[in-house]
Every structure is written in structure tokens, then in C-alpha cells.
Input
Amino acid sequence: MRTIAVLFSFILILAACSPENQEAKNNPEVKQAPQTSNAEAKIEQEQAQEPPQKPEAVQQEQDQQPAGQTQESVSKPEVVETPTPVATAGPVAKAYVVGTDYDVLEEPVGTITPGKIEVTEVFWYGCGHCFSFEPILNAWSENLASDVELVKSPAIWRPNMEVHARMFYTAKSLGILAKAHSKIFEAMHHKRMPMATQEEIREFFNTEFGIAPDKFDSVYTSFAVDSQVQQAGARARSFMITGTPEIIVDGRFRVTAKKAGGQEQMLEVTDYLTKQIRDKNI
Output
């Protein structure tokens, strides 16, 4: 009997060491703490030990480091390389892209100023954008290079535009274009004068510039003015004009506010193109 009792006690001890002891079977909500192996216990014991003390000199150096700075950053200071300066003749001009900033005409159009890089403004007196562009263009034209010539060419694609083109060439033939050009813009956009008929333009020229009515009529209906109006219309069609104002450089390149990014940018692209032509790059 004593032997049987000893065996029974040994069986109970074995059952208590198994992963699922009796208490876990009777109470499933109670979970056993995970068993720690001898290797894991050794690792935990090593991690719990204090790190080895550093030499006093190193410890003092770390104590003097600013907050957030590591030993590596102190022992290896950042080396900043200073770029070697490059000598330049002046500011580097932006490189504009054909098709993005300006267009190339399919067929070049003959210029009317031989020996010059011709910059042609295609405009319409009735265009509000042309009116706002006028002072910008005038300021730009004051600093033109000697090899650049600014030409103004009226756009024509409907009857009232032809009347305004005739007014332009009449003023040019009478020798008053320099003072008449801006005044015509102001009369149409500030005073709301349509300048739609020969009679209205005659009266305006007489009142503003002292041009006698008969002299005005003779020039306004002259063969010379007729020819210039027809040439302007043909030129505008050859330029493939899509609106006003637009700039044509050397009869080959069309610059618009839409592609250039604005009216002032049109002149920046124009400067770029004239330089490329001067340097024989295009």
C-alpha cells in the first residue's frame, strides 16, 4: 500500500508541471504565465546588469555635449564643401522652348526692314489688351539695341478693323502717328469713341491734330493707304494671328501672352529670340 501511495503522489507532481495543469482545465479564463527558458533567463539577467562604465575622459566629454548631440556627431564633425565660384559674364538667360513659350511659323514672312532684326507688334485699336500693352511696349522700345527695329502692324479680320487700319496708315502718311497712336487708343477706350466711320475719324483728326478735312479725305482714300491696308491684312494672315496683341520676331517666330505667360513675359521671350538670332543660334 505504501508503494501505491508514493506512485500516486509522483503522478500528481508530473501533472502540475505540464503546460496545461489541472487549474487551467477547471478555470479556462485563467492563463498561465509563459514559461521562461534557461536561455531567456540568461539574456534577461544580462540586460538587467548595468552597462560597463566608460573611461572618465569620455564620460566628461559626453557630459559637455549639447542636448540631442551624439558621440558620433562630435567625433565626426560635418564637412561643408564650398563650391568653386564660376566666372560668368552676367546673369544666365532663361532658355525658352519652342512650342511651349513661342511658336515657329510654318512659312517665314518677309520683313520690311532689311539688315535689322524686325520685331512686329500686331495690334488692333479696339483691343483692350493692346491698350494695356501699349505703355509696356513703349518702355521696352526705349532700350532697343541698334540692330532691332520695332514695327507696328494692324490686325484685320473684320470690316471695322479695316477702318482702324486705314486710320493708322492715314496718321502715318500725315506724319502724326507718333502723337496720334496713343491718343487714338485713349479716345476709344477712355472716351468710348468707336472711330467706326471716315466722318468720325475726320472730325477727330481735325479737332486733335488740326488736319484739314479735305487733306484728311485725300490721304484716307489714297492709293498708298489702300496698298498698306491690303499688305497689313495679308501679313496678318501669313503670321497666323490668333488674337491681339501678338509679336512676330524676324518674320519667323510668333510670341503670344498665352504661351509666354503674360504681356511683360512676351517681351522677355522677344529679347531671348533677338539674342538667339543675333548670335546665329536660330
